[in-house]
Please model this.
Amino acid sequence: MQLAFDYDLFVIGAGSGGTRAARMSAALGARVAIAEERYLGGTCVNVGCIPKKLFVYGSHYAEDFEDGAAYGWTTSGESFQWPTLRDNKTREIERLNNVYQGLLEGPGAEIIRERAILSDTHTVSVGGEMVTAENILIATGSRPSVPPFPGDDLVITSDDAFYLETFPERVVIIGGGYIAVEFAGIFNGLGAETTLLYRGPLFLRGFDEGIREFVAQEMRGKGVGLRFDTHVASVERVAGGLAVRTRAGDVLETDVVLCATGRSPNTVGLDLDAAGVEPGRSGEVRVDSRYRTSTPNIHAIGDVIGRVQLTPVAIAEGMCIAYNLFGGEDRQVEYDDIPTAIFCQPNIGTVGPTEERARERFPALKAYESTFRPLKHTLTGRDERTMMKLLVDGDSDRVVAAHMVGPEAGEIIQGLGVAIKAGATKADFDRTIGIHPTAAEEFVTMREARA
Ligand code: NDP
Model:
Protein backbone atom coordinates (compact mmCIF):
# COMPACT_ATOMS: atom_id res chain seq x y z
CA MET A 1 0.00 0.00 0.00
CA GLN A 2 1.29 3.47 -0.91
CA LEU A 3 1.21 5.75 2.14
CA ALA A 4 -0.18 9.16 1.31
CA PHE A 5 2.29 11.12 3.44
CA ASP A 6 5.92 10.69 4.50
CA TYR A 7 4.92 11.12 8.17
CA ASP A 8 1.80 11.06 10.32
CA LEU A 9 3.16 14.01 12.32
CA PHE A 10 5.89 16.53 11.54
CA VAL A 11 6.87 18.63 14.54
CA ILE A 12 8.71 21.93 14.08
CA GLY A 13 10.74 22.72 17.19
CA ALA A 14 12.20 20.34 19.79
CA GLY A 15 11.53 22.35 22.92
CA SER A 16 9.49 21.13 25.88
CA GLY A 17 6.15 21.00 24.04
CA GLY A 18 7.38 19.74 20.67
CA THR A 19 9.51 17.02 22.20
CA ARG A 20 6.67 15.75 24.38
CA ALA A 21 4.20 15.70 21.47
CA ALA A 22 6.72 13.95 19.20
CA ARG A 23 7.80 11.23 21.59
CA MET A 24 4.30 10.47 22.90
CA SER A 25 2.92 10.35 19.36
CA ALA A 26 5.72 7.99 18.31
CA ALA A 27 5.04 5.86 21.39
CA LEU A 28 1.40 5.67 20.30
CA GLY A 29 2.55 4.26 16.95
CA ALA A 30 2.64 7.36 14.76
CA ARG A 31 5.40 7.94 12.19
CA VAL A 32 6.96 11.12 13.54
CA ALA A 33 9.73 13.50 12.47
CA ILE A 34 10.87 16.50 14.50
CA ALA A 35 12.95 19.35 13.07
CA GLU A 36 15.23 21.45 15.28
CA GLU A 37 17.82 23.87 13.94
CA ARG A 38 19.29 24.89 17.30
CA TYR A 39 19.43 22.85 20.47
CA LEU A 40 17.31 19.93 21.67
CA GLY A 41 15.23 20.87 24.69
CA GLY A 42 14.51 24.42 23.56
CA THR A 43 14.46 27.45 25.84
CA CYS A 44 13.76 25.59 29.10
CA VAL A 45 16.76 23.29 28.88
CA ASN A 46 19.23 25.58 27.15
CA VAL A 47 18.56 29.21 28.05
CA GLY A 48 15.69 29.11 30.52
CA CYS A 49 14.36 27.18 33.50
CA ILE A 50 17.20 24.69 34.00
CA PRO A 51 20.32 26.86 33.71
CA LYS A 52 18.47 29.64 35.53
CA LYS A 53 17.72 27.41 38.50
CA LEU A 54 21.35 26.24 38.59
CA PHE A 55 22.41 29.90 38.69
CA VAL A 56 19.90 30.56 41.49
CA TYR A 57 21.48 27.76 43.52
CA GLY A 58 24.92 29.18 42.78
CA SER A 59 23.95 32.66 43.84
CA HIS A 60 22.65 31.58 47.24
CA TYR A 61 26.03 30.42 48.52
CA ALA A 62 27.12 33.91 49.53
CA GLU A 63 24.32 34.02 52.14
CA ASP A 64 24.86 30.38 53.09
CA PHE A 65 28.52 31.05 53.88
CA GLU A 66 27.55 34.03 56.03
CA ASP A 67 24.79 32.09 57.79
CA GLY A 68 27.12 29.18 58.52
CA ALA A 69 29.02 31.26 61.07
CA ALA A 70 26.03 31.27 63.46
CA TYR A 71 25.96 27.48 63.24
CA GLY A 72 29.60 27.17 64.21
CA TRP A 73 31.20 26.95 60.79
CA THR A 74 34.24 28.97 59.98
CA THR A 75 34.75 29.73 56.35
CA SER A 76 37.62 31.68 54.99
CA GLY A 77 38.75 33.08 51.72
CA GLU A 78 35.64 32.05 49.81
CA SER A 79 35.59 33.54 46.35
CA PHE A 80 33.40 33.11 43.33
CA GLN A 81 34.69 31.92 39.96
CA TRP A 82 32.12 32.72 37.27
CA PRO A 83 33.73 30.51 34.57
CA THR A 84 33.34 27.47 36.85
CA LEU A 85 29.61 28.00 37.37
CA ARG A 86 29.02 28.95 33.72
CA ASP A 87 30.95 26.01 32.30
CA ASN A 88 29.62 23.40 34.75
CA LYS A 89 26.15 24.58 33.85
CA THR A 90 26.95 24.27 30.13
CA ARG A 91 28.22 20.72 30.62
CA GLU A 92 24.98 19.77 32.34
CA ILE A 93 22.96 21.34 29.52
CA GLU A 94 24.93 19.32 26.98
CA ARG A 95 24.16 16.17 28.96
CA LEU A 96 20.47 17.11 28.88
CA ASN A 97 20.63 17.70 25.11
CA ASN A 98 21.71 14.06 24.78
CA VAL A 99 18.95 12.94 27.15
CA TYR A 100 16.43 14.68 24.91
CA GLN A 101 17.89 12.97 21.87
CA GLY A 102 17.38 9.62 23.59
CA LEU A 103 13.84 10.53 24.65
CA LEU A 104 12.95 11.18 21.02
CA GLU A 105 14.85 8.34 19.39
CA GLY A 106 13.70 5.78 21.97
CA PRO A 107 10.12 5.55 20.73
CA GLY A 108 11.26 6.05 17.11
CA ALA A 109 10.81 9.75 16.33
CA GLU A 110 13.21 10.88 13.58
CA ILE A 111 15.25 13.95 14.49
CA ILE A 112 16.13 16.30 11.62
CA ARG A 113 18.74 18.88 12.68
CA GLU A 114 17.59 21.54 10.22
CA ARG A 115 15.35 24.56 10.03
CA ALA A 116 11.85 23.69 8.77
CA ILE A 117 9.67 26.06 6.73
CA LEU A 118 6.02 25.54 5.88
CA SER A 119 5.46 25.02 2.17
CA ASP A 120 1.76 24.17 2.02
CA THR A 121 -0.82 22.59 4.29
CA HIS A 122 0.88 19.19 4.24
CA THR A 123 4.41 20.01 3.11
CA VAL A 124 7.46 21.25 4.95
CA SER A 125 10.75 22.31 3.41
CA VAL A 126 13.59 21.00 5.54
CA GLY A 127 17.29 20.75 4.73
CA GLY A 128 16.62 21.39 1.04
CA GLU A 129 14.01 18.65 0.78
CA MET A 130 10.24 18.65 0.68
CA VAL A 131 8.60 16.25 3.11
CA THR A 132 4.91 15.65 3.59
CA ALA A 133 2.91 14.93 6.72
CA GLU A 134 -0.72 14.34 7.51
CA ASN A 135 -0.39 16.58 10.57
CA ILE A 136 2.05 19.37 11.28
CA LEU A 137 2.75 20.78 14.75
CA ILE A 138 4.27 24.23 15.18
CA ALA A 139 6.14 24.28 18.49
CA THR A 140 8.74 26.93 17.73
CA GLY A 141 8.60 28.70 21.08
CA SER A 142 9.50 32.31 21.70
CA ARG A 143 12.53 34.58 21.88
CA PRO A 144 13.40 37.57 24.05
CA SER A 145 11.96 40.80 22.74
CA VAL A 146 13.73 44.12 23.23
CA PRO A 147 11.76 47.33 22.69
CA PRO A 148 13.43 49.84 20.37
CA PHE A 149 15.38 52.66 22.03
CA PRO A 150 18.67 54.42 21.25
CA GLY A 151 21.42 52.00 22.18
CA ASP A 152 19.19 48.90 22.20
CA ASP A 153 21.97 47.07 20.35
CA LEU A 154 24.18 47.42 23.46
CA VAL A 155 21.90 45.42 25.77
CA ILE A 156 21.93 41.68 26.36
CA THR A 157 18.98 39.35 26.86
CA SER A 158 18.59 36.28 29.07
CA ASP A 159 19.97 34.18 26.17
CA ASP A 160 23.31 36.00 26.51
CA ALA A 161 23.31 36.13 30.32
CA PHE A 162 23.94 32.38 30.45
CA TYR A 163 27.19 32.67 28.50
CA LEU A 164 28.83 35.94 29.66
CA GLU A 165 32.56 35.99 29.00
CA THR A 166 33.31 37.82 32.24
CA PHE A 167 31.17 38.39 35.31
CA PRO A 168 30.13 42.06 35.56
CA GLU A 169 30.66 44.23 38.62
CA ARG A 170 27.54 46.26 37.88
CA VAL A 171 24.30 45.19 36.19
CA VAL A 172 21.20 47.13 35.23
CA ILE A 173 18.11 45.07 34.47
CA ILE A 174 15.19 46.51 32.50
CA GLY A 175 11.79 44.89 33.13
CA GLY A 176 9.71 43.71 36.05
CA GLY A 177 8.53 40.21 35.15
CA TYR A 178 9.73 36.69 35.93
CA ILE A 179 13.08 36.97 34.16
CA ALA A 180 13.98 40.42 35.49
CA VAL A 181 13.42 39.53 39.15
CA GLU A 182 15.05 36.11 38.87
CA PHE A 183 18.19 37.54 37.28
CA ALA A 184 18.22 40.41 39.77
CA GLY A 185 18.54 37.78 42.52
CA ILE A 186 21.18 35.84 40.59
CA PHE A 187 23.43 38.80 39.79
CA ASN A 188 23.03 40.27 43.27
CA GLY A 189 23.78 36.95 44.95
CA LEU A 190 26.84 36.39 42.79
CA GLY A 191 28.21 39.75 43.84
CA ALA A 192 27.26 42.27 41.17
CA GLU A 193 25.87 45.66 42.15
CA THR A 194 22.38 45.15 40.71
CA THR A 195 19.69 47.67 39.83
CA LEU A 196 16.30 46.80 38.36
CA LEU A 197 14.39 49.46 36.43
CA TYR A 198 10.66 48.93 35.99
CA ARG A 199 8.30 51.21 34.10
CA GLY A 200 5.28 50.81 36.44
CA PRO A 201 4.69 51.64 40.10
CA LEU A 202 5.37 48.07 41.36
CA PHE A 203 6.91 45.11 39.53
CA LEU A 204 5.39 41.64 38.92
CA ARG A 205 2.15 43.02 37.55
CA GLY A 206 -0.54 40.34 37.62
CA PHE A 207 0.68 38.74 40.86
CA ASP A 208 -0.94 39.27 44.26
CA GLU A 209 -0.31 42.83 45.41
CA GLY A 210 0.66 41.92 48.97
CA ILE A 211 3.16 39.41 47.59
CA ARG A 212 4.62 41.99 45.19
CA GLU A 213 5.12 44.53 47.97
CA PHE A 214 6.64 41.93 50.27
CA VAL A 215 9.08 40.71 47.60
CA ALA A 216 10.12 44.27 46.79
CA GLN A 217 10.93 44.83 50.46
CA GLU A 218 12.86 41.54 50.74
CA MET A 219 14.85 42.16 47.56
CA ARG A 220 15.77 45.65 48.71
CA GLY A 221 16.82 44.11 52.03
CA LYS A 222 19.25 41.87 50.14
CA GLY A 223 20.77 44.86 48.38
CA VAL A 224 19.03 44.89 44.98
CA GLY A 225 18.37 48.44 43.82
CA LEU A 226 14.73 48.67 42.72
CA ARG A 227 13.65 51.74 40.80
CA PHE A 228 10.00 51.81 39.83
CA ASP A 229 8.20 54.29 37.55
CA THR A 230 11.45 54.42 35.64
CA HIS A 231 11.57 54.50 31.85
CA VAL A 232 14.78 53.95 29.96
CA ALA A 233 15.49 56.65 27.39
CA SER A 234 18.80 55.39 26.02
CA VAL A 235 21.88 53.30 26.59
CA GLU A 236 25.27 54.50 25.40
CA ARG A 237 28.86 53.40 25.58
CA VAL A 238 31.04 55.43 27.94
CA ALA A 239 34.58 55.04 29.20
CA GLY A 240 34.62 51.94 31.40
CA GLY A 241 31.16 50.64 30.55
CA LEU A 242 27.66 51.68 29.60
CA ALA A 243 25.44 54.55 30.70
CA VAL A 244 21.70 54.07 31.03
CA ARG A 245 19.81 57.33 30.80
CA THR A 246 16.26 57.41 32.18
CA ARG A 247 13.51 59.63 30.83
CA ALA A 248 13.68 61.57 34.11
CA GLY A 249 17.28 62.42 33.22
CA ASP A 250 19.11 60.15 35.69
CA VAL A 251 22.21 58.36 34.45
CA LEU A 252 23.31 54.95 35.77
CA GLU A 253 26.74 53.65 34.87
CA THR A 254 27.00 49.91 34.51
CA ASP A 255 28.89 47.06 32.84
CA VAL A 256 25.92 45.13 31.52
CA VAL A 257 22.33 46.04 30.68
CA LEU A 258 20.01 43.03 30.68
CA CYS A 259 16.70 43.61 28.94
CA ALA A 260 13.99 41.26 30.25
CA THR A 261 10.93 42.82 28.69
CA GLY A 262 8.96 39.79 27.56
CA ARG A 263 9.24 37.17 24.85
CA SER A 264 7.77 37.15 21.32
CA PRO A 265 6.43 34.10 19.48
CA ASN A 266 8.95 32.57 17.09
CA THR A 267 7.16 32.68 13.74
CA VAL A 268 9.58 34.75 11.66
CA GLY A 269 10.66 32.81 8.58
CA LEU A 270 8.19 29.95 9.14
CA ASP A 271 6.04 31.07 6.19
CA LEU A 272 2.72 30.64 7.95
CA ASP A 273 1.07 32.19 4.88
CA ALA A 274 2.13 29.36 2.61
CA ALA A 275 0.06 26.96 4.71
CA GLY A 276 -2.84 29.34 5.33
CA VAL A 277 -2.03 29.63 9.05
CA GLU A 278 -3.33 32.93 10.41
CA PRO A 279 -1.38 34.75 13.10
CA GLY A 280 -3.03 36.58 16.00
CA ARG A 281 -2.55 40.24 16.86
CA SER A 282 0.81 39.83 18.59
CA GLY A 283 2.28 37.59 15.91
CA GLU A 284 1.37 34.41 17.80
CA VAL A 285 -0.11 31.39 16.02
CA ARG A 286 -3.83 31.52 16.70
CA VAL A 287 -5.37 28.18 17.77
CA ASP A 288 -8.73 26.85 18.93
CA SER A 289 -9.38 24.87 22.12
CA ARG A 290 -7.78 21.76 20.55
CA TYR A 291 -4.68 23.63 19.32
CA ARG A 292 -5.85 23.63 15.67
CA THR A 293 -4.73 26.62 13.64
CA SER A 294 -6.85 28.14 10.88
CA THR A 295 -5.57 25.18 8.80
CA PRO A 296 -7.10 22.28 10.76
CA ASN A 297 -4.36 19.67 10.16
CA ILE A 298 -1.74 22.14 11.42
CA HIS A 299 -1.59 22.51 15.19
CA ALA A 300 0.46 24.76 17.45
CA ILE A 301 1.38 24.63 21.15
CA GLY A 302 3.66 26.26 23.71
CA ASP A 303 5.07 29.78 23.76
CA VAL A 304 4.31 30.31 20.06
CA ILE A 305 0.53 30.37 20.73
CA GLY A 306 1.04 33.23 23.19
CA ARG A 307 -1.14 31.86 26.00
CA VAL A 308 0.87 30.77 29.01
CA GLN A 309 4.63 30.76 28.53
CA LEU A 310 5.48 27.98 30.99
CA THR A 311 7.25 24.68 30.29
CA PRO A 312 4.76 22.45 32.14
CA VAL A 313 1.91 24.05 30.19
CA ALA A 314 3.66 23.38 26.86
CA ILE A 315 4.21 19.78 27.97
CA ALA A 316 0.54 19.38 28.90
CA GLU A 317 -0.43 20.81 25.51
CA GLY A 318 1.97 18.40 23.82
CA MET A 319 0.29 15.49 25.62
CA CYS A 320 -3.09 16.67 24.32
CA ILE A 321 -1.79 16.71 20.75
CA ALA A 322 -0.44 13.16 20.97
CA TYR A 323 -3.49 11.66 22.67
CA ASN A 324 -6.00 13.57 20.56
CA LEU A 325 -4.35 12.78 17.22
CA PHE A 326 -3.16 9.23 17.87
CA GLY A 327 -4.86 8.00 21.04
CA GLY A 328 -8.49 8.58 20.11
CA GLU A 329 -9.01 11.01 23.00
CA ASP A 330 -10.35 14.52 23.26
CA ARG A 331 -8.17 16.24 25.83
CA GLN A 332 -7.58 19.88 26.57
CA VAL A 333 -5.48 21.64 29.15
CA GLU A 334 -7.15 23.31 32.12
CA TYR A 335 -5.72 26.79 32.30
CA ASP A 336 -7.29 27.64 35.68
CA ASP A 337 -5.23 27.56 38.84
CA ILE A 338 -1.85 26.88 37.24
CA PRO A 339 0.69 26.74 40.07
CA THR A 340 3.81 28.73 39.31
CA ALA A 341 6.99 29.85 41.03
CA ILE A 342 9.33 32.75 40.49
CA PHE A 343 12.84 31.89 41.60
CA CYS A 344 13.65 35.34 42.84
CA GLN A 345 15.17 35.47 46.33
CA PRO A 346 13.27 34.60 48.43
CA ASN A 347 11.15 32.53 46.02
CA ILE A 348 7.53 33.20 45.17
CA GLY A 349 5.10 30.30 44.83
CA THR A 350 1.51 30.87 43.87
CA VAL A 351 -1.64 29.07 42.80
CA GLY A 352 -5.07 30.55 42.22
CA PRO A 353 -6.22 34.14 41.83
CA THR A 354 -4.68 37.17 43.47
CA GLU A 355 -6.53 38.56 46.49
CA GLU A 356 -7.73 41.47 44.35
CA ARG A 357 -9.30 39.16 41.75
CA ALA A 358 -10.57 36.69 44.34
CA ARG A 359 -12.46 39.52 46.13
CA GLU A 360 -14.26 40.30 42.88
CA ARG A 361 -15.15 36.65 42.28
CA PHE A 362 -15.97 35.60 45.85
CA PRO A 363 -17.85 38.31 47.79
CA ALA A 364 -17.46 36.42 51.09
CA LEU A 365 -13.70 35.99 50.67
CA LYS A 366 -11.65 35.34 53.79
CA ALA A 367 -7.92 36.02 53.70
CA TYR A 368 -5.52 34.31 56.10
CA GLU A 369 -2.05 35.75 56.21
CA SER A 370 1.08 35.09 58.15
CA THR A 371 4.56 36.60 58.09
CA PHE A 372 7.39 35.24 60.17
CA ARG A 373 11.13 34.82 60.42
CA PRO A 374 12.14 31.35 59.17
CA LEU A 375 13.46 29.17 62.01
CA LYS A 376 16.90 28.96 60.38
CA HIS A 377 17.34 32.70 60.77
CA THR A 378 16.60 32.76 64.49
CA LEU A 379 20.28 31.86 64.86
CA THR A 380 21.74 33.71 61.89
CA GLY A 381 19.99 36.97 62.70
CA ARG A 382 19.28 37.48 58.99
CA ASP A 383 16.17 39.59 58.75
CA GLU A 384 14.69 37.73 55.77
CA ARG A 385 11.02 36.99 56.35
CA THR A 386 8.51 34.56 54.91
CA MET A 387 4.96 35.42 53.91
CA MET A 388 2.02 33.09 53.35
CA LYS A 389 -1.49 33.86 52.28
CA LEU A 390 -4.48 31.54 51.97
CA LEU A 391 -7.67 32.76 50.29
CA VAL A 392 -10.93 31.04 51.14
CA ASP A 393 -14.39 31.48 49.63
CA GLY A 394 -16.47 32.08 52.76
CA ASP A 395 -19.63 30.79 51.06
CA SER A 396 -18.32 27.35 50.07
CA ASP A 397 -15.34 27.17 52.48
CA ARG A 398 -13.16 26.21 49.48
CA VAL A 399 -9.55 27.30 49.48
CA VAL A 400 -9.24 29.22 46.22
CA ALA A 401 -5.63 30.39 46.32
CA ALA A 402 -2.34 30.04 48.15
CA HIS A 403 0.51 32.53 47.79
CA MET A 404 3.90 32.38 49.41
CA VAL A 405 7.21 34.22 49.52
CA GLY A 406 9.99 32.26 51.18
CA PRO A 407 12.55 29.49 50.78
CA GLU A 408 11.33 26.63 48.59
CA ALA A 409 7.98 28.33 47.98
CA GLY A 410 7.67 26.47 44.66
CA GLU A 411 8.12 23.09 46.38
CA ILE A 412 5.44 23.93 48.95
CA ILE A 413 2.91 25.43 46.57
CA GLN A 414 3.12 22.46 44.18
CA GLY A 415 1.45 20.26 46.83
CA LEU A 416 -1.13 22.89 47.71
CA GLY A 417 -1.91 23.12 43.99
CA VAL A 418 -3.16 19.53 44.11
CA ALA A 419 -5.33 20.29 47.15
CA ILE A 420 -6.82 23.36 45.49
CA LYS A 421 -7.44 21.49 42.20
CA ALA A 422 -9.16 18.77 44.21
CA GLY A 423 -11.48 21.35 45.80
CA ALA A 424 -10.12 21.21 49.36
CA THR A 425 -11.95 23.34 51.93
CA LYS A 426 -10.48 25.34 54.77
CA ALA A 427 -11.90 22.66 57.08
CA ASP A 428 -9.79 20.09 55.17
CA PHE A 429 -6.71 22.23 55.70
CA ASP A 430 -7.58 22.65 59.40
CA ARG A 431 -7.90 18.92 60.03
CA THR A 432 -4.57 18.22 58.30
CA ILE A 433 -1.79 17.78 60.84
CA GLY A 434 1.22 19.99 60.26
CA ILE A 435 4.77 18.73 59.78
CA HIS A 436 6.81 20.31 62.52
CA PRO A 437 8.97 22.29 62.36
CA THR A 438 8.48 23.44 58.79
CA ALA A 439 7.37 26.66 57.18
CA ALA A 440 4.73 24.73 55.24
CA GLU A 441 2.84 23.77 58.42
CA GLU A 442 1.77 27.40 58.68
CA PHE A 443 -0.63 26.74 55.79
CA VAL A 444 -2.58 24.26 57.94
CA THR A 445 -2.47 26.23 61.17
CA MET A 446 -3.79 29.64 60.12
CA ARG A 447 -6.90 30.18 62.24
CA GLU A 448 -7.88 33.86 62.21
CA ALA A 449 -8.95 35.52 58.96
CA ARG A 450 -7.66 39.06 58.69
CA ALA A 451 -9.87 41.98 57.73
P1 NDP B 1 7.11 38.96 31.52
O1 NDP B 1 5.99 39.11 30.57
O2 NDP B 1 6.96 38.16 32.73
O3 NDP B 1 7.58 40.41 31.97
C1 NDP B 1 7.94 41.39 31.06
C2 NDP B 1 8.29 42.63 31.84
O4 NDP B 1 8.83 43.60 30.96
C3 NDP B 1 7.09 43.27 32.51
O5 NDP B 1 7.47 43.79 33.72
C4 NDP B 1 6.70 44.36 31.52
O6 NDP B 1 6.09 45.46 32.14
C5 NDP B 1 8.07 44.78 31.04
N1 NDP B 1 8.01 45.37 29.70
C6 NDP B 1 7.37 44.89 28.61
N2 NDP B 1 7.56 45.71 27.55
C7 NDP B 1 8.31 46.74 28.00
C8 NDP B 1 8.81 47.90 27.39
N3 NDP B 1 8.57 48.17 26.11
N4 NDP B 1 9.54 48.75 28.14
C9 NDP B 1 9.78 48.48 29.45
N5 NDP B 1 9.34 47.39 30.08
C10 NDP B 1 8.60 46.52 29.36
O7 NDP B 1 8.34 38.48 30.61
P2 NDP B 1 9.75 37.89 30.98
O8 NDP B 1 10.61 38.34 29.85
O9 NDP B 1 10.15 38.20 32.35
O10 NDP B 1 9.48 36.34 30.88
C11 NDP B 1 8.78 35.77 29.75
C12 NDP B 1 7.91 34.64 30.19
O11 NDP B 1 8.71 33.50 30.44
C13 NDP B 1 7.15 34.87 31.48
O12 NDP B 1 5.96 35.56 31.29
C14 NDP B 1 6.93 33.50 32.00
O13 NDP B 1 5.72 33.02 31.48
C15 NDP B 1 8.11 32.73 31.46
N6 NDP B 1 9.10 32.49 32.53
C16 NDP B 1 8.76 31.66 33.56
C17 NDP B 1 9.63 31.44 34.59
C18 NDP B 1 9.23 30.54 35.72
O14 NDP B 1 8.30 29.76 35.60
N7 NDP B 1 9.90 30.63 36.88
C19 NDP B 1 10.96 32.04 34.62
C20 NDP B 1 11.19 32.91 33.51
C21 NDP B 1 10.30 33.11 32.52
P3 NDP B 1 4.50 45.55 32.38
O15 NDP B 1 4.21 44.61 33.50
O16 NDP B 1 4.30 46.97 32.76
O17 NDP B 1 3.84 45.17 31.11
Summary: The CA atoms of residues 185 and 345 lie 6 Å apart. DSSP finds twelve helices and 21 strands in the chain.
